[in-house]
Amino acid sequence: MACSSTQSLLAIVQTDASDYGIGGYVFMVTNDKERVIRYFSKVLQGPQLNWSAREKECYGIYYGIKQFEGLLDNRHNILKTDHKNLTYIDVTLTDGGSFVYKVRTSI
């Protein structure tokens, strides 16, 4: 993966969700190599298990950003997700009462 010197200064957050949990990590690219800074994972419980895939993925992003907040403050960041619907989150948010809307507006 080739990156410019500007990209190597970015903190990159990669998150994912499954039926039963969320996880992710924050890394930087230096000398064309990923350098992991920290990982996280969390088991979903109770009502969280009934959330849609979109809500679980969104919660994974929210939780990851909160976990890495000290590392991400005052710098440019990139967020990576494999959930295609979340890449359109700015376009599709119209319901102010939805969980995804609340998470999006809080980060």
Quick summary:
The chain has 107 residues and is of the alpha+beta class. The protein has four helices and four strands.
| Uncertain spans | 1-8
* Order of SSEs: EEEHHEHH
Distance between the first and last residues' Cα: 28 Å
Strand order of the largest sheet: 3-2-1-4
Strand content: 25-35%
What is the fold's blueprint, element by element?
Elements: E1 11-17, E2 21-30, E3 33-43, H1 53-67, H2 69-72, E4 77-80, H3 89-92, H4 99-106
Parallel strand pairs: 1-4
Antiparallel strand pairs: 1-2, 2-3
Provide structural commentary.
The chain has helices at 53-67, 69-72, 89-92, 99-106; strands at 11-17, 21-30, 33-43, 77-80. Strand 1 and strand 2 (21-30) form a beta hairpin. It has 107 residues and is α+β, with helices and mostly antiparallel strands. The longest helix has 15 residues, at 53-67. A four-stranded mixed β-sheet has the order 3-2-1-4, with helices on one face. It is globular. The two termini are 28 Å apart. Mean pLDDT is 79; it is low at 1-8. It has one domain: Ubiquitin-like (UB roll) (Roll). Helices cover 29% and strands 30% of the residues.
Main attributes?
single chain; alpha+beta; Ubiquitin-like (UB roll); disordered N terminus
